[in-house]
């Protein structure tokens, strides 16, 4: 039981780290362009995509560890 919980926590933390990495790389990319309304829109799209990666990864981690638990019973 503790092993599954540890795996779940590690996978959730990893998904949030990947989301943060997406944000960091996207901001680095967008800093190469002059500030404009278009870039401001890209900032919003980037933040939405980063959150989608983090939340989606967390959801998949929870579902994967549940599915694994149910298949062992």
Q: Can you give a write-up of this model?
A:
This protein has 73 residues and is mainly alpha-helical. It has one domain. It has helices at 2-30, 37-72.
What's the short story on this structure?
The protein is mostly helical and 73 residues long. The protein has helices spanning 2-30, 37-72.
Give the key terms.
73 residues, mainly alpha
Distance between the termini: 13 Å
Form type? elongated
Class from secondary-structure proportions: mainly alpha
Figure out the total of helices: 2
Strand tally is: 0
Helix content: over 70%
What portion of the residues fall into strands of 2 or more residues? Answer: under 5%
What is the number of domains? 1
**Unreliable stretches, pLDDT < 50, 5 or more residues?**
none
- Provide the gyration radius in Å: 17 Å
Major β-sheet profile: none
Q: What is the average of the pLDDT values?
A: 86
Give helix and strand order, one letter per element, not per position. HH
Write the SSE topology:
Layout: H1 2-30, H2 37-72
